[in-house]
Amino acid sequence: MLEVRGLSKIFGGLRAVDSASLDVAEGTIAGLIGPNGAGKTTLFAALTGFLAPDEGSVRFRGEDITGRPPHLICRHGMVRTFQVTQPFAHLSVRENIMVGAYLHTPERALASARAEAIARQVGMADLLERTAAGLTVAGRKRLELARALATQPKLLLLDEVMAGLNPPEIDELIPVIQGIRSSGVTVFLIEHVMQAVMSLAENVYVLSYGKIIAQGAPRQPAADPVVIEAYLGHGAAQRIAATAHA
Amino acid sequence: MNWKIPAALLVVALAYPLVFRGNFAINFGVLVLFFALIGQAWNIAGGFGGQLSFGHAVFFGTGAYCSTILQLKLGWSPWSGLAASAGAGALVGALIAALSFRFGLRGSYFALITLAFAEAFRILTNALEFTGGGVGLLLPLKRSALNFQFAERIGFYYTILALTAISIGIAIWLQRSRFGARLAAIRENEDAARALGIDTFREKVKVMALSGALCALGGTFYAQYYLYIDPAVVFGVDKSVEMLLVSMIGGTGTVYGPLIGSLLLTLVGEYTRAITDAQGLSLIIYGSLLILIIGFLPNGLVDLFKLRWRRKARA
Ligand SMILES: Nc1ncnc2c1ncn2[C@@H]1O[C@H](COP(=O)(O)OP(=O)(O)OP(=O)(O)O)[C@@H](O)[C@H]1O
Ligand SMILES: [Mg+2]
User: Fold this and answer.
1) Which of A1, A158, B124, B203 has the most crowded CB, counting CB atoms within 10 A?
2) Residues on B contacting A at a C-beta cutoff of 8 Å
3) Structural domain of residue A199, as residue ranges?
4) Residue A156's CATH number
């Protein structure tokens, strides 16, 4: 469904994304992990048209969408959420979600009904008339998810929707995301919360200094010495092995 | 949707000149509606769309000159001129927006660009011969409704009432339509709007065209009411500031804000003119009012009414 080939994004001298290639298969949940500053958010921005890639190509649903503007990519079925939530602060939760729903209908009543259904799906039905600015972190994260879902995407890119949530909130959100996948939406998520990655993703990519350094089922990269070093520093894998032997 | 408020307002506005028949009272009503119209034009771009402008006089002047020149040079009826000026206002709005937004100008940069355009238009009309230069243009007196020059002021009153009612109708529609929802999204967070599939460039150009068209209608009305226009007045910074003030004092991004702001400012303007000739005084009072309102009612005078309604609803 999504094929990324040799994608690079360069900021001055920094190769924030460095010839990244990856595939996301239709109907799956794929994960993207990596240390802080690895370039995960930059990669998402380059996929969705927020940043123009400097090299490489993005194919989505059989079309080359490299360099298309965000609104056209969204209309083609790929939508992102923001790591730093970007609510329409003075609008109500319902109005926020309706903006997404209006992508496919000009009818106010229809958009409103869709917003209600989606709010129920992500567990914020009782917050519909609240102003977005007054939501908690967990509420804002859900709102990001709800608005994106309202555009009826084929592929949903989630940038750390679990960050800042407490464990019970995370436990609530995991089945929501599984439900989204069961409803036919492919999911690609960036996550630091390992519990979430492990229980959700079938295939995980590891990004470090802009490069994809590992890929596989979630347990696999977690045990990969290259990945451990990317997270914990040079020599860490050896030290861990040594402690395990001792 | 609560239709009671607009219906009641319309009835009051229709009855007003039948009850208060004096020239002063009708002139007062005309001014309130006129400033409410151009304030609403500004509000549609600045309040609903979040595209603040310091130079809306560029649309006002475009409308005033468009219909006046069509009459003087081509013998058009001012009523056709009114339609043409709406088209011209929309065109200028779309062009300024397309140019600015193509180059990614936002916020205060956009506001300054609109100001620059208004000034450029003022200097240009000042210099060109066919616009009458700095002397301006005088419309020959020919009193008849067909000629948009009513023998009785009440004709002007009902004309401006119709135009203002249209502008308020558009504001109501913006509150309830997809276009309005998209504008609100752009105003609140442009990146999020783009992520959700909104062509922000296109929507912003559209709202500037709409706002420019309404503002130009005000320009043509002004030209027909006073039968005289010159560059300094119709393209001047004063006009731009008046529109912005009317909207900000009443409440930006609200349906009735510009009407409320216009009512207050026209009252203040007429009253200060009655007690003194000093031009500066009314500006000082305007400024002080603005400071007071920003201090105590940051969302404008409409908040006073909202508070009352809320209290009533609770009682
Ligand atoms: N607009 C920008 N201009 C310059 N440098 C940038 C820009 N955006 C990101 N960077 C840099 O690119 C690198 C990758 O940033 P990015 O936000 O993509 O990392 P990330 O993997 O999402 O990190 P985190 O886990 O903290 O969210 C960082 O070094 C960051 O400082
Ligand atoms: Mg990030």
Assistant:
1) A158
2) 176-178, 181-182, 184-185, 188-189, 191-200
3) 2-87+152-245
4) 3.40.50.300
